[in-house]
Write a structure and sequence with these properties.
Blueprint (H helix, E strand, L loop, with lengths): L1 H18 L5 E3 L3 H16 L3 H6 L1 E9 L2 E4 H9 L10 E3 L3 E4 L5 E10 L4 E11 L5 E8 L1
């Protein structure tokens, strides 16, 4: 029984380390740059700036609306435009995990999605690609 309790406690500690947004996980070359880009991307929603939002998307980006993929900036923009209507954002997000592959060029970001009252409503998962111009843009996005 002692091992089961110790194992349960160890799992709880490990779970806390990897899910606690205050601790975060930002590893790899350029992780801070991608984290800052994700924060700036989320700020477009807070600022109600749809045109700025679009600049964070790779031209060939794929976002998921449920299980349905939205391909390209035009399709993503059409689906996301209503979220920018009104004075208050319907949700917000922030990264608590960013990983950049060792060779660079691709990164993963993830974190909580918060409702308008600040309650956790889901989690976003994004893949970023560094362009030839050196700018990181979202290439894939899927919430859960």
């Amino acid at each position: 029984m002692k091992h089961a309790t110790t194992g349960t406690l160890a799992c709880a500690v490990v779970s806390c380390l990897f899910t606690n947004p205050l601790l975060g996980q930002f590893d790899g070359p350029e992780a801070e740059t991608v984290r800052e880009r994700e924060i700036a991307f989320a700020q477009t929603m807070a600022n109600r700036d749809f045109e700025a939002f679009l600049t964070f998307l790779s031209p060939d980006a794929v976002f998921f609306a449920g299980d349905r993929p939205l391909r390209g900036v035009d399709a993503i923009g059409e689906a996301w435009r209503p979220f920018f209507d009104g004075d208050q954002p319907p949700f917000s997000w922030r990264p608590d995990q960013v990983q950049v592959i060792d060779r660079g060029g691709l990164a993963f970001s993830s974190g909580p999605v918060l409702g308008s009252a600040g309650e956790a409503t889901g989690r976003f998962n994004s893949i970023w690609r560094k362009g030839e111009d050196g700018v990181w843009r979202v290439i894939f996005d899927k919430g859960s």
